[in-house]
TrEMBL record:
The lineage of its organism: Bacteria, Bacillati, Bacillota, Bacilli, Bacillales. This is TetR family transcriptional regulator. PROSITE patterns: HTH_TETR_2 (PS50977). Keywords: DNA-binding, Transcription, Transcription regulation. It comes from Paenibacillus albidus. SUPFAM superfamilies: Homeodomain-like.
Length: 199
């Protein structure tokens, strides 16, 4: 996914988000210069001017530098503030698009570069799918809380999975089409989901 705005976070969360963004920035530069496989955690930590042990306070490994972001807390708070009159899918769509509009051009370009690497390296694709499984569970919890259903309800799980699937397709398209606008793509894709994908 993407890093998101830090304005709604507390001081500790903002500091963590800035450190994560700094590490990701240097990691991407190193990946560009010498390749993903040739880049080590030690090199990333040195470039970001943090210790090796500090790196692992933020990321479980090198692949997480590309997979992990700070989007979930922002999505949760924005979704919970959406009007109750909206359908669960409409509320989720509005929350996701609201956060995307706060991203700078630099953040969007970083997201595109991360996605390009993720889709081009097999071990990163595997890590991304694991991350998306967690995202599906998060969305199921949000949808369940709004609808009064259980998070393991089949309908709730299916809708959460559909939204994650849409997001994956948008990420792939955005990574491959340099002229595409991520927010526009996601909005159109979620509209199609809402309309039942009329073909």
């Amino acid at each position: 996914m993407f890093s998101g705005d830090t304005r709604k976070m507390g001081l500790r969360e903002r500091k963590k988000a800035k450190t994560m963004a700094l590490v990701q920035k240097h990691a991407l530069r190193l990946f560009r210069e010498q390749g993903y496989k040739a880049t080590t955690v030690e090199q990333i930590a040195e470039a970001a001017e943090i210790s090796y042990s500090t790196f692992f306070r933020y990321f479980a490994g090198k692949e997480e530098v590309l997979i992990r972001d700070n989007y979930d807390p922002l999505l949760i708070s924005t979704f919970e503030a959406e009007p109750l009159g909206l359908s669960p899918l409409q509320a989720l769509k509005d929350a996701m698009l609201s956060e995307i509009t706060k991203l700078s051009d630099e953040e969007l370009e970083t997201m595109r570069e991360r996605n390009q690497l993720i889709y081009s390296i097999p071990e990163l694709r595997s890590a991304m799918l694991k991350n998306m499984t967690g995202m599906t569970q998060l969305l199921a919890e949000l949808l369940a809380s709004r609808t009064g259903r259980e998070k393991n309800d089949f309908v709730v799980q299916t809708l959460a999975g559909a939204v994650v699937g849409v997001n994956i397709s948008v990420m792939l398209h955005y990574a491959e089409h340099l002229d595409a606008d991520f927010g526009t793509l996601l909005g159109e894709a979620l509209d199609m989901l809402e309309q039942g994908f009329p073909l």
